[in-house]
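Box 3.1. Reading complex inputs
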Amino acid sequence: MRNEDAPTPSLPRFAGEGVEASPPPVAGGGLGWGHLVVDSVTGVEVALPVAGPGARSFAFVIDWHIRAVLTAAWYVIGMMLYNQEWTNITPPLETDAAWFGFVALPAAAIYFLYHPVLEIAMRGRTPGKRMAGLRLVTRTGGMPLLGAHVIRNVFRLVDNFPICYGLGLVMTMVTRNHVRLGDLAAGTLLVYDQLDQLAQGPIA
Amino acid sequence: MSEASRDHVLATALLARSAAWQTAAERARRLAGGRRTEDVSDATAMIEDYRLLAHDLARARRLMPQSRARQFLEAAYAQAHATLYRPATHPGYAAWGFFRDQIPQAVSQLKVHILWVTLLFVAAIFSGYWLVHAYPELIALFASPALIATVERGELWTEGLLNVAPSSVLSLQVLTNNVVVSLFAFCAGFLFGLGTFYMIGLNGLMLGAIFAFTAQHGLDDELFRFIVAHGCVELSVMCLSGAAGAAIGEALIRPDSPRRSESFQRAAVRSSKLLIACVVLLIGCGFIEGYISPNPDFPLWTRVVVGAGYWLFMIALLRGWLFGRSRGAAPVEA
């Protein structure tokens, strides 16, 4: 099956740059639609199946629930300790520095820093992406550098426009590699990585 | 021997190597992690693995394209590729180099934008001042009725700040607010730079108008006292983040690469560096605005020294001098 969307490469390509979504010249390869194909010194192309809006949303929903639960857990435990009562989690009428610094701020930090911190610490495989079988790669199939992670996460603010990642979702539907604005800016994309699942069963 | 039976024999021989693939996949995954390996033979075995996987994948693509073995080899080969071509990085050194070289580089690449946005901001301040000075009733366009009523009573809205919230809470609130505003100024630039134009223009007009309005009620000295300590850097950061956004807008209008998306990516990389410097600077602004600005015990000269000193700190950060870049160093090549 050949990729209908593949553009004719009329523009000069830079050395080492990934050739996006063009069908690999493999006899009977059948790599299917939507692969990122990267040249390698071995002469055998690396073919990465690009994740679409569905898989991306699935990973995001898992991540969102994890961070929502973590945030709520910190808030509830923090309020119990702050009130020094195991059944009382009502916030104080007048907020003071202790409440702000011990309960509200860490909870907000968990919520807003979940993606940037985990993506960097887990090399582009947050728990949600892991469960959805996805991995973050650069357009040359490599592992993104720190700068790319930072840019990708700063742009979440834009992708979140106007609400619930509306812009980001539309972008993943219309761009060739199904990426949101942040990925476009950082030069990254999400690909399927089924290595762990496949390694569990018999290969042959 | 027919071709079909030969392929069958080849496939069987290929599958006999599945244990080696497993080992290779496991090693590629392990070495992709951040932990450093001391075992050199383990690392060099990775190179052999890569060739083994490439060879066997090419065979599998031809002999058994629909098999699970091929799927596994595709995934293992992709992981081995990523692991093998992983750039050597050292987080501490990368952070140091970021502040020493990359921020000055971004500033020098964006200096035209920074200049124009600053000029726009200054021009807007003067226009706002002139507008309200000449037509005092126009202040209703720029300020809320509550603020107007407060100033007409002869008070500044900043006076009771510390009674409402302690300095620590105020600092964090101000920091959050400033970060949101500067990110907004940045993002607004994506609309082909127009968002930045309107936002910087409007903020300049407001600042000028409010100064003119407080001057009519003899409060402009008070307002200056409040603003000077944190305002120098805060307003500069506004201009910087606006310029960073405008640069992305310009990259979309006049792409410097064959494709707009590529041009957008390059501009985003440049601008994000400046934006990170802005966020770092805003942390200091938040503390000054929470602890020094609303505290009436600090005399004017302390405030001016803090404001000017922090502004010089900003210049040193943006030029990389803070992190050991020599003053005469040639600008970093783009």
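In summary: Chain A touches chain B through 52 residues (CB under 8 Å).
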